[in-house]
Amino acid sequence: MDVEAARYLGAGLATIALIGAGVGIGIIFGNYLAGALRNPGAAQGQFTNLLVGFALCEFTGLLGVVMAFIILFT
Amino acid sequence: MASPMEQFEVRPIVPLHIGNLDISFTNVSLWMCIVVGAAALLLTASASSRQLVPTRMQSIAEMSYVFVADMIRSAAGTAGLKFFPFVFTLFMFVLFSNVIGLFPLIHPFTVTSHIVVTFSLAIFVFLMVIVVGLARHGLRFFSIFAPNVPLFMLIVLIPIEIVSFLSRPISLSVRLFANMMAGHTMLYVFGTFVIGLATAGGALSALSIAPLIAITGVAALEFLIAFLQAYVFAILTCIYLNDALNLHEHH
Question: Residue A36's domain is classified under what CATH number?
């Protein structure tokens, strides 16, 4: 296979990591909302944990994006 | 079409060399100076009026102060307030470089979209946490690697804790850099698409209004992400500081 073609395929495959990040972020915000609706009083206190969880989750997906950029542009 | 990565190119403005060392004043250095200058100017100018009923600018400075102080108090307890100047500087630097990088027309350069910048910040936080922990607790600081679990679980957990501790500067820096780089690349790619469609002529030009509206929404989202990433960077610094200050007690 042509190296250039393999490169584009590889970069495309690397973005599969974003599926996991999307699912994870959905779970985090969905569960936060479900919890917040059941106990609105406790919601404000968990906002920090929400954002930290979001950041940790997003990081795994972004690693895939960085991988795609490295494959494409180096 | 130019590569979407071209906007991240580092170009020397004033070339300087000491031996084999390249210490040129680049566009990154220039924009870093602008970021620091803008943050310092805005905060000092708006805090200097000191009226009892704050003006709009004064409330911006006061709100950011209270915001960061509350963040430290909730994540690291009152002991963490000693590090307020550090965390506030970090937060303001990251926030201003993220937001200034998004301004249109002035062709800004987002300094946080380079891993060398974010990694320097992150490794500084990492080393400071170790120094603070060792200074405060001595060798007991290493008990953060041993959570409160049965003994046989420790065999598994201690290596995991050590790896997760050592990966902190990497995750802290890559998160910020990847968010900024991915965001700017995405804006560039979508923007080129809108321009290409608008200049295609005929019905396609009329259609280009839809992606234009979409990219305006994406740009607004980027402002949210710029703030959120600065917040996450600062709050994770506070959480790491809490580990060093209070070992296993959470606040």
Answer: 1.20.20.10
Q: At CB < 8 Å, which residues of chain A contact B?
A: 48, 51-52, 54-56, 58-59, 62-63, 65-66, 69, 73
Q: Categorise residue B7: left if φ over 0, alpha if ψ from -120 to 50, beta otherwise.
A: alpha
Into how many domains does chain A fold?
1
Nearest to A65 among B3, B75, B182 (CB): B182
**In the prediction, which pLDDT does B140 show?**
84
CB contact under 8 A, A63 and B179: no
| pLDDT (average), residues B191-209 | 85
Query: Cα–Cα distances in Å, from A74 out to A4, A69, B5, B36, B79?
Result: 12, 8, 10, 31, 46
Question: Which tokens hold the place of B108?
Answer: 């800004």
Q: What is the ipTM of this complex?
A: 0.71
Gap between the Cα atoms of B81 and B123, Å rounded: 21
Please write the tens of the pLDDT for every residue from B47-101.
777 777 777 888 888 899 999 999 898 888 888 889 999 999 999 999 999 999 8
Residue-range definition of the domain harbouring residue A30: 3-73
- For residue B71, give the 3-state DSSP assignment: helix
Are A59 and B171 a contacting pair at CB < 8 A? yes
- How many helices (H) and strands (E) would you count in chain A? 4, 0
- Residue pLDDT, tens place only, B148-170: 788 888 888 889 889 989 988 98
Under DSSP, is residue B251 helix (H, G, I), strand (E, B) or coil? coil
Which pLDDT score, from 0 to 100, does residue B250 have? 53
Chain-chain contact of A52 with B231 (C-beta, under 8 angstroms): no
Residues B90 and B228: their CA atoms lie apart, in Å, by 14
- Distance CA(B3)–CA(A54), nearest Å, equals 30
